[in-house]
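Intended use. Records like the one below are meant for learning the mapping from a protein sequence to its folded structure. Do not use them to infer anything beyond what is encoded.
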Amino acid sequence: MDAASSSFLARNEFLIRRLFSLCGLVPVGAYMVVHLSTNSLLLLGPSKFQQAVNQIHMPGKALVVIEWAFIFLPILFHAVLGLVIIRGGLPNTNSYPLPGNIRYTLQRATGLIAFLFILGHVGHLHGWFHFEPWVSMIEGLGGARFRPFNASSTLAEAMQSSLIAKIFYAVGVLSCVFHLSNGIWSAGIRWGIWTTATAMRRASLACTGFGVLLALVSVAAWIAPLLADVDEAKRLEQSMIEARLESGEVTAGEVRQKSVPGTLRGDSGTD
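Structure written out for the chain above:
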């Protein structure tokens, strides 16, 4: 088959595969490291986690644009192209020894699991979109559970809701960790960073060490909401909200929009 009749993906494989691997590392991989590290702060107490969430939400309405431009769209690009690769839409020209074949297979399996996990995770906690009719529908289906002003308590309630939720997050997060750490190793080969057998072995050890460390962080992020005292977290969140209202850092309207119903005591529903 000549270049004119071959598929667009096959004709542009060199560029597409590099964009694919780069996108998986930055911003998707970098964001995952930050996200897991932030969630693990809950082990230090609800106040530490709430402070981190408050900082993340400081951009206000611009956060939605930031999320889609630097997180969701890159994730979707990487995931959709990954599905094309899994289906064989791009030819695999590399020759792998047996251990490499295992890593190759696990990379694609964990990539698929990670994609399904991210879809479910964002829907479960955030609902994907923020306009009211959609949020109401997702809430009715048990999603959009997270509230930025009640970060610890709503995350804990969502994670403690069922055994399925616990298993779903454990399998999903660890799949993401393997996919990223092994992806760094394979990206190094694709980009020509390590080209000799010795360099590949050293890179493999380094990526394995990174993966183990990130797995420990992910376990901390997973177990923290399971150990959290929801009632204690709610009391602390309430005091933090009241302090922010008193200082003028936030408005009553913002609290109503981003907190669980009834957070504002004696709320009449108007500013």
